[in-house]
Design goal:
38% helix; single chain; Rossmann fold; 6-stranded parallel beta sheet; 3-stranded mixed beta sheet; 8 helices; 200 residues
Length: 200
């Protein structure tokens, strides 16, 4: 995961989106050039849309790393330009990305009141790190937890609203990678069916 940022200086070209969020999770090799792109934003939006979440007036993000920067771009696309960032320390690079994206986040530490009135909660924290928030998410209308193993996480199991897993995000960002690498449409239905079969 740290490589999403570390790879940027090694690239010959970076997409506007990857530059804005300061995170590239895809490197395309074309004519001897390394081109960086970001498919995480697409993965977040497509996974949420698949679950019926197509807008968010008030979003809360847990975490301030590279995935949180992609989540900032995603929630802006959903209509939220002033999300709440719940972090332990000042996320300097994430705030710089927010400025590039035209997003004005409120940065705060954790307290249950930050979830009041939130339409969408996005946890970008690694497995286990969000477990302590689980008792407070029962009334959250929609949750995306980027963790995919183990699943469900305590956060996901406690949420009373729509829950989207990191596996769905991973699938859709990979589908976009297939399209970027091959120039062909990804077989998303087959990919979804395969993922569902693996869960059984």
């Amino acid at each position: 995961m740290p490589l999403k940022t570390a790879v940027l200086p090694l690239l010959d070209e970076v997409s506007d989106l990857a530059r804005s969020v300061a995170a590239a999770n895809t490197v395309l090799l074309r004519n001897g050039r390394r081109i960086g792109d970001n498919t995480d934003v697409h993965g977040i939006l497509a996974a949420l849309a698949e679950a019926g979440v197509t807008s968010a007036g008030r979003a809360v993000l847990l975490g301030g790393g590279a995935t949180a920067r992609s989540a900032l771009a995603a929630v802006k696309a959903l209509g939220c330009s002033d999300p709440v960032l719940v972090v332990r320390s000042e996320p300097v690079e994430t705030l710089a990305a927010a400025a590039r994206l035209g997003v004005t986040p409120t940065v705060t530490g954790w307290e249950p009141g930050v979830l009041a009135g939130c339409d969408l909660l996005v946890s970008t924290l690694p497995a286990g790190a969000a477990d302590r928030f689980a008792p407070h998410v029962r009334d959250v209308p929609a949750l995306l937890d980027v963790v995919y193993d183990p699943w469900p996480t305590p956060l996901a199991a406690s949420c009373g609203g729509v829950v989207v897993s990191g596996a769905a995000m991973l699938l859709h960002q990979a589908a976009r990678q297939v399209e970027l690498m091959t120039g062909m449409a990804a077989p998303v239905r087959v990919m979804v069916a395969t993922l569902q079969a693996l869960k059984r």
